[in-house]
Amino acid sequence: MENICYFRPKWVGSPVTNNEKTTPKVNERRGKNSKKKGEVDPVEVYCRVRPLDNPNDSCCVKPLSTTVVQLIPPENSLAVARNGQIKEYQFTFQYIFDEYTSQKAVFDYVACPLVDDLIKGKNGLLFTYGITSSGKTYTMTGTPKDQGILPRCLDVLFNSISGVQAKKYVFKSDKMNGFEVQSEADAMIERQKRDIIPGITTPKTPTANRRGNFGDQERISDPTILTSVDDDNQYAVFVSYIEIYNNYVYDLLEELPYDPITGYKPPQTKILRTDSSDCMYVMNCVEVEITSPEEAFEVLFKGQKRRKVAHTALNAESSRSHSIFNIRLVQAPLDPRGEEVLQDPDKICVSQLSLVDLAGSERTHRTKNAGDRLKEAGNINQSLMALRNCIEILRENQKNNSNKMVPYRDSKLTHLFKNYFDGEGKVRMVVCVNPKGEEFDETIHVMKFAELSQEVLIARQQQVRFDIGLTPGRRKINQNYKDKFKSEEDLCTPAKVPAFDFTLGPGFPPFELLRSTDDIVLPELEKFLEERQKRREILQLELDKQNDEFRAHLVEIDRNYEQALFQNDELQQRVEKSEAYVQKLESRIRSLERRLGENSRQTKQSERQKRELEAMIQDKEVKIRQEKSEKERLKNDFKARLDMNNQHWERNLEKERQKIEQDYGGQIWERQQKLNMLRNIVNETDSDSCTPMPAPRETFRTPAPKSRTQTTPAKILSARSENDMRKIGTTPTPRTRTVTTGATLSAARANLRPTTKSTSTSKTPKPTPPFNPRHRRSRSSNAEIWLDHRPPGSVELDTVLQPKIKKKKSVSKLEVKDTKEVSKYMLTHQDMDSEDNLTTQIYKGDCLPTAGGGTAVVFNDVETLKQTSPGSRKRRSSCPQPQDYEGDWTDVEDRCNIAIEGHGNAMKRSKPNGATRV
Ligand code: ADP
Ligand code: MG
Fold first, then answer.
1. Atom of ligand 1 nearest to the CA of 130
2. Model-level pTM?
3. What would the pLDDT profile of 566-579 be if each residue is shown by its tens digit?
4. Mutate which of 138, 321, 366 to test ligand 1's pocket (most atoms within 8 Å of Cβ)?
């Protein structure tokens, strides 16, 4: 008799995962807060609707989606009878399997992940819950052709661990609800003792069952293989099968005492115990190690058979009991050589999957039982009620953050599974539903409880670490080595010696010795015996020879073996060396990677800094350029203003001077007259002849002081030139004016003198053409040379538009000689208006040589350039102004400014000067 352990911690006492610390101590008062900190999972509830036995029956269940199912009460149900209304109920579950869902689909969705967890060292609990005949047993066990969850779990588990299974009895119960590991040699001895030596072993079950079939029927096994198996572990599977009936625990694998007279005696009840890790287990319960699904089915059938016998003995009914099939997977890592399981009890990991087929959940009055049966039904309900109570209180504790005691001890069922609810594994429930209308009143209770159960949260089990620091893949390495060694051994084996006939030859011939002196028989016998003796000697020789050969072969094998061992050691050393080298390289790679990361981080940082500095330099350069251009502009502005001021003042001075000259001109002239008169008087007194004053001079110098038509000599000359021009047929344009320059002045004077003389002598002066148009320089010669006359103080224009002049000669003061070689003349005249705007006029004319040898300038064009400050030009604009603009802008610059800057909401007005730059 062995103990079975429920809720065993992972890696029992393992220093790697330190499970002693992570495994929570049982605390029935544990509420939400007292649970292990970390992730939690809800109790996962799935719903399976079985098909109707009779398709014509009324149906009260309708799956609406994969997660929602609807319950519609039939008209004769209690719910309708109570309030007369047909109220539909909807329930949400993790997944709804409808009547067409296959056994395989249910297993894959619900149980397969639990098997995967089992291999990974985690626990799982799976219930089937529902009323009688709702399909609980069908879902859990199924049929041979369509297996349920339990056989599929076994199939998948063995499919997955095949090849990494430990030999039987390597793992052994320690009778303390734990396991210990023993060497393969010890395990072999135990195997021989228990299974091979006749008499010790228990009688075998019939062959049909040994094949693992359901009775006589062949079963179809599940082919799924899970890949979560660790190749460097050894696995062993242990199963136990118990039943809880009337709140008593029975072991279904226990041999029932048989009395030849009274038959089988009722089974003994078992008690629940807590082990050193506070895990619940059934004391003295048989736990069988199985090495294949077939063996597992053997155990299952044995249990089911005993269950029937026990029920007969107990006068019980199977649907009233809870059956629990328990699979425990024990795993431990291989030793460093990958040969055997590591002989360290601390490294053993035990995980468990409990598959529970609960009793029917219908209420007592419905069972119509009496006496013992009523008591039995009541107890069933008591167990399920206890389960319900526990789940409700757990939910309440978690919801309200309270710490109410969970009544696990109220029933054996809840007491046994308390560790699961305290966070020792995943809990799943398949609610089986019979959609028959008659079952509505019971089904509704089942559904309500099941839906409620989902609200209970269970702390997630810690991940189990199987890596204990040994070389991974050591099993494979060892296997490869063995294969190699085997092939070498085969090579060492000498060629097979042809079989030698070791028989002594034909048997004794049928001699019949009648007397001791039989001459015929005795010699024949003697001959036969001699031959036989010879044959024996030959055989002896052959035997000795073969013995020698065998010995030699043994010695050879021994030598080979030693060599192999030596090679093995060498290989081991080389492997260790390589491993050390690999580790060294890995650490070097890690350090290099670290340095690389550091370097790339630094590079990135310097690049960022460089970019920032470049941006700063660009900003500064832009600022410097702006400052420079601003400075230049201010300088030009200032210069222009200074020049204009100078000119203004010069003009004012000139005006003042002219005014003074006008004011005092008469007086001077009078004095001059008086002086002349005095001189004449003096001269008259000196000589008798009277010489009249030259008329032109007189004419020239006797302007009426107050005459409005007072002309300057230039003007007179100009008038004369115009007359001359008219006379020679030149028709000046209305704009054309002719002025005489200093050069023409002297020439004109020369011309004027005779004219004046003739005027004084005869009253009809004969005008002389001042120049000969034929002397004009040819334009086609392209030899136009301009005389650019800019009086001193002229302001530099700095205009973009510049006169197109190829050759020019610039003067600030006009000399006669300057006019000799030029054909064009331009005079720059600048003026300032009241708003300080500069107006530049360029008087242009042709230079024509005069007959007298001078040069006359015929003005024929005036170019006027007016430069104004943009800010001073105010003109009402027709452009629509922005609504939020409050200023008084009208000019082009302002509009331009706004056009450029007004694309954003923040509209700004720059200074008028700034606008000029725009
Ligand atoms: P329970 O264990 O809940 O009392 P069973 O599993 O014994 O109910 O099912 C009662 C009957 O219904 C069985 O004959 C079973 O074959 C059948 N049955 C239950 N569920 C299904 C299903 N999903 N598909 C087909 N037959 C089913
Ligand atoms: Mg059943």
1. 3
2. 0.54
3. 999 999 999 999 99
4. 138
